[in-house]
Structures are given as structure tokens and as C-alpha cells.
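INFO batch 0412 | record 1 of 1 | parsing
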Amino acid sequence: MQAPPTVRLFDRTTPPHVVTLVLMAGLTALSMNIFLPSLPMMAEWFGTDYGVMQLAVSLYLAMTGLLQLFIGPISDRYGRRPVLLVSITVFLLFTVGTIVAPTVEVFLACRMGQAVIATGIVLSRAIVRDMVDESQAASMIGYVTMGMALVPMVGPALGGMLEEAFGWQASFSLLLACGVAVLVLVWADVGETAQNRSASFAAQVRSYPALFGARRFWGYCAVAAFSSGTFFAYLGGMPFIGTVVYGLTPTELGLYFAPTAVGYALGNYISGRYAVRVGVIGMIYAGCVLTLAGLGVQALWLAVADMPALLFFSLFVVMGVGNGMVLPSANAGMLSVRPELAGTASGLGGAMMIGGGAALSALTGALLTETTGAWPLLGVMGASAALAVVAIGYVARRQRQVMGA
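INFO prediction complete | emitting C-alpha cells
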């Protein structure tokens, strides 16, 4: 088992401290969800309907997926540190644009530009894989994302309170301040971990077939995409359900995000604590089945009885636990097929995960109406969870074939 390297906080000659990795990834998560309770008010501010304003979620996710195709390879070629510093700086510029945007079109363009902060999640995973082996990576990624889960727990609630006190722009002002702080932290603490960089993009591209031809890699990508798809569908539908179906205020809506985030943190803890003992595939299986079972119970309950808002949103804690168990191991698996291409694997896998999430988020938003209630949301989430179970079954079968060869 590979020994973890020495880490010293604020020492650029060593790998970054775990706190830095958590805050890098946390800024990405905060950018994704802090403004969600404000979507109905933002639609009114810009004089557009909710479907257009919801593009602030789906277009952001789509651009995040596209950028991840390039973030990984570029960081494999030029290193993790310079890519992080440049991308956070660009994020700050586009964040200023969202605050001063005069029209919804300008806002959405700047919102898409903010997606460059995806480097925080992509490279936090790649840096972990640079430092330790597969089973340790699943455990360490679990702990990193457990800390990161605090952000979606408090972000929407904080965003809702900021909107009621100062207007929707306050959430983006907070993002700007947090981005400046993370930029300073990355500059002071992140030492370069990509030690086996290729001499050129041409040399790097020549090694891609070994990754792209690995069926286990694509299987792990599918697991991550469908598992996270349940969460992104939730992001796309929850503001509508909370506001239109249950009549929640922005602050109440933000607070109801907490159960899912609490569940995700718990799932991350389970992954961090037991991934080495249980194994990557065993942990993924357990999380996928738990997610599907939780959604099934929720749909059955909704079919036979009215559900108050607190109960409806609290039951998503099960999905959070399942995702928290699945995603660290799925990410560690896809990064370990070809460790020398960890950045590329993280970017490509993340692109599939986020791109699929963008599609499911947009689909959920389009299907929801006042008459349908929450059923389209549960339907899309359930279908995505079922496909995740199928995908991990394929990975397990392929693993047995490889081990038996």
C-alpha cells in the first residue's frame, strides 16, 4: 500500500493539505447551489419565466461538463497548480459579470463562464490520486467530499437568507469573496503533484486509446453519471416543487436542502471509513441499491398519502447517503484504470457525470407543472438510480473477467 506523502499547510513544496482540497471543491459546490432559492425572484427581476431562469442551472452544468474534457488533459500536461490559479481568476471575473448583468442573456453568459471553477472538483480528485493508490484514494476522496458536503448543506439556506435581506445579487457577492479567499489559499498551499507529465499534447493523445479502450473505465463513468444524475435531477426540480407545490419562502426552501446534504456527508463518512475494507465495487453496490430503495419508498408513500413538505424533502436524506457512498469509490475507480492519466480520466468522467446531470436537470424542469406535482421528479430520479445499479453490475462482471484472465 502506497504511503501518503508528507503534507505541510502553506508549504508549496508539498502536496496541498486536505483542508485546501475541501475548500477548492467546496467553492465549486457553492457556485452550483447557493442561488437556487432565488431562482423565482431572479425570473421576476429579469422579466422572464422560470424555465428560462432555470437555465442558470442546466447551462452551467452543461458548460461544466464540456470544460472538464479539457481541464484534465491540460492539467496532466502543464500541472495542477497553474491550471487552478488561472481558472479561479477567470471565475472571479465572470462572477463580477453575474452581479452587474443588465439582462438575463448577459447573466446566463456569465453564469456559463463561472463553470470554469469545475477545476476545483476535477483537480481535487486528481491530486488525491496523484498522492495515494486506488483503495486509499476512495477513502481520502470520501473524507474530502464529506467536508465539501457542508457547503450544499448551508449554501442554499444562506442564499435564501441573503436574498430576503439584500436581494439575489448578495449570493453572487458572497461567491466573489469566497473565490478571492480560495485563490489566495491555493497560491499559498498547493504544491505540484503531477510528476509524470507528458512532453507534449501529441505524446499525451497517443496514450488515450489505452484509457478509452478500457471498458471498466466507461463502466465507472456510467455509475458516477447515473448516481449523480439523481442529485442533479433533484437540483432541477426542487426549487419548483418547493415554491409552486408547497409554497415555501426562499429561506425555507434553502433549509430543506439540508437533509440531502446531511445524508451525503454521512455517506461520505461511511465511504471514508469502510472503502478500504469493503472495496470499491462493494461500496458502490451498497450505495446504488440504497438510493433506489429510498426513492421507491418515497414514491410508494406519495402514492398512498399526502406528504407535508418537511417529510417529502427529509426523505431525500436516503438518496444523499447513497450518493455519498457511491461517488468517492466510482471516482477512485475511474482514476485508477490508468493512473498516469488521472487528470484526463477525472475530466472525462466528470464531463459525463455533469453533462448527464445537465440533461436530467433540464428534463426535470421541463416536465414539472402545477398539475403533475412531484411525480416527474421522482420518475427521473428513479430511472437514473436504476441505471446506476445496472452499470455497477457490468463493472463487477468485467472485473471478474479481468481477474480471471
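INFO post-check: Residues 18-404 form a domain with the Growth Hormone; Chain: A; fold (CATH 1.20.1250.20).
INFO record closed
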